[in-house]
Amino acid sequence: MNKVMLIGNVGKEPEVRYVDAGVCVASVRLATKERGYKLPNGGEVPDRTEWHNIILWRKLAEVVEKYVHTGDKLFIEGQIHTRTWDDKNGIKRSITEIWADSMEMLTPKSQEPTEGNNV
């Protein structure tokens, strides 16, 4: 089974493009953080941040385009995909991506001012 679940923060504004007959695809850089801790001998292991390349298609990508911004917290479920290619200099490159099957936005919406509660 190929299943990944991540909770993290968006590192930069998503990149959205339209391909093949108007299909929306979005790319998101997601940072997950593993908390550091103290060792029994008094030493410390620092926090560790891991960066993930998230790919979202169709309706999920359209939601990302409208509502997801730098710093937002997301829950992503998906699959690991690795692809390789030769760059323009003939050097073999590879990238590991998470192709999202579902996404949940965890950042609470800020309250918009309404008449009567403007400060």
Whole-number mean pLDDT: 91
Helix content: under 10%
State the order of secondary-structure elements, H for helix, E for strand: EEEEEEHEE
Number of strands: 8
- Low-pLDDT residue spans: none
- Major β-sheet profile: 5 strands, mixed, barrel
**Tertiary shape:** globular
Strand order in the largest sheet: 1-3-6-8-7
How far the N terminus sits from the C terminus, by CA atoms, comes to 53 Å
Structural class: mainly beta
Strand content: over 45%
Radius of gyration: 18 Å
What CATH calls the topology of the domain at 4-81 is OB fold (Dihydrolipoamide Acetyltransferase, E2P)
CATH architectural label of the domain at 4-81: Beta Barrel
CATH level 1 class label of the domain at 4-81: Mainly Beta
- SS field, number of helical segments: 1
> CATH superfamily of the domain at 4-81, called what?
Nucleic acid-binding proteins
Can you offer a commentary on this structure?
The protein contains 1 helix and 8 strands; from the N terminus they run ββββββαββ. It is mainly beta. It has a domain at 4-81: Beta Barrel (OB fold (Dihydrolipoamide Acetyltransferase, E2P)), CATH 2.40.50.140. It has a 5-stranded mixed barrel. The longest helix has 10 residues, at 58-67.
